[in-house]
Amino acid sequence: MDLEVVPSHLPIISAQLHTGQAQVAATAAPASVAAEPIPAAIDSISTWASQIVTDYMRSFFRGTSDGLAGHGRLADALPVVSANYETSDQSGAIVVGGTTAFG
């Protein structure tokens, strides 16, 4: 399988990723406030249900926050990858002269 890299596209993709990240963050922030359950009544079922929903809500939005952070790191890495790719390509290198930003 061949992979064609167009280095000039990577900064554009980076900008698109940052835009998407900002849009998701703008949606998630108010949603996290709205997702907070109302205080439980005094019965045990209401207390239990409120705690379950609260735990899930915190887990969900923590995962969303972590995903957005990873999304941002990827977007930040693409212009660097583009520059490394162009530099290596111009010098006739067979491999990209950079380190991986993906782990």
UniProtKB/TrEMBL annotation:
Pfam families: PE (PF00934). Residues 4-90 form the PE domain. It comes from the Bacteria. This is PE domain-containing protein.
